[in-house]
Design goal:
The protein has 17 helices and 17 strands. By secondary structure, the chain is of the alpha/beta class. Strands 9-10-8-7-6-5-4-1-11 form a 9-stranded mixed β-sheet, with helices on both faces. A 3-stranded antiparallel β-sheet has the order 12-13-14, with no helix packed on it. It binds iron/sulfur cluster.
Length: about 425
Amino acid sequence: MRDLSIYIHIPFCVRKCLYCDFLSFAMPAWQEEAMAFDREWPGEGLSYTEIGEAGCGREKEIENVIRYGSLLKKEIIAQAEKYRDHQVISIFWGGGTPSLLGTGMVQELMGVIHRYYAVIPEAEVTMEANPGTVTAQKLRGYITAGINRLSIGLQSTFDQELKRIGRIHDYRTFLETYRLAREAGFHNINIDLMAALPGQSVASYAETLHRVTKLTPEHISAYSLILEEGTPLYERQEEYQFPDEEEEREMYLLTEQSLAACGYRRYEISNYARKGYECRHNKVYWQRGDYIGFGLGAASMVGNVRWSNPSQFGEYETYVISQEQKEKTALCQKTETEGGEALPVQILTRQEQMEEFMFLGLRMMCGVSREMFYKLYGQRIEKVYGTILDKLYAQKLLVCENDVIRLTPKGIDVSNYVMAQFLF
Ligand code: SF4
């Protein structure tokens, strides 16, 4: 059986962070509801109107979430037949803020995945959670549903820094969420951090690293803020003081040094883990494994074919319903049917596959295998990339040891330059 990973996109957030260009929508009335929403998911049985009336006056938002959950369920079921020969090794609830979901919906959807897909017993099942959106009861419910890894978006331990980027939480709220998660029984927790934030200093970033490592999470992701065009932070960047290039570089170096000193091994350019806790799901992306995405705008790649779900709610709904219809017809006729809304797919050329193999694989500290390259593409890596490799070896940015080619410490520092060399 081939390995498969599943991604589930939950496009709802309490409100939009000022730097965010992800596919997510603000649900301003949701936070209180999210805390209280531990009730059973009513599923198909209850109409949207009834839910609205039964809820606490936040009809529209509740209706949207319930409706979205129903679509996810249909989509998961409709796609299952195609993946009969796959075993699911990881599931990732991302967003958005998946931890806004009540346990009822999560349990229902996890149950559906287990019923329709061959999930291995030791599968890694991650949920992204934002501080302040979970209760002890919700967290216990997630564990019952099979979530065994929590990824908490902290970003900074300084309230002013969090405020400037529009996060909904403060540091105290994060600490409470972290404590609740440990008490609920999460033994595998990631904490997301960000460097190069407006108003952040090298000293405050160092203190954030110090405070976080003292909590001993199993995994830490540390990315630099990227100002994306069209976001409020981008538009208002003149109003803020950002760390300069030198400070940003100091923060970058500090991350590796201080995390290494606390027992975290860098295994990807921006990801660090204690032994045995590397994120299996993300490794599938970097190692070009098969994954399918469910939900609004979710991306998939199976056997070098890539596609994405529609990113508009209306179009996504039409697509899911057509897939469900197609599946039902196929089951009745016990045959494959044509029809249904087809999504445009991109079939990756051999050259594109080789490029991805290099620039995704080299993100990982374990590097890329020359033998694997030969096995996959029938050519020696030196035959395809000889000139580029020689240049990067000479610049001491890459090193080749037996079967493995990987970044040197100097190469990690200028990884964007290195990766760009492999794009034709
Ligand atoms: S919590 Fe994440 S997805 Fe939601 S708005 Fe903030 S950055 Fe975007």
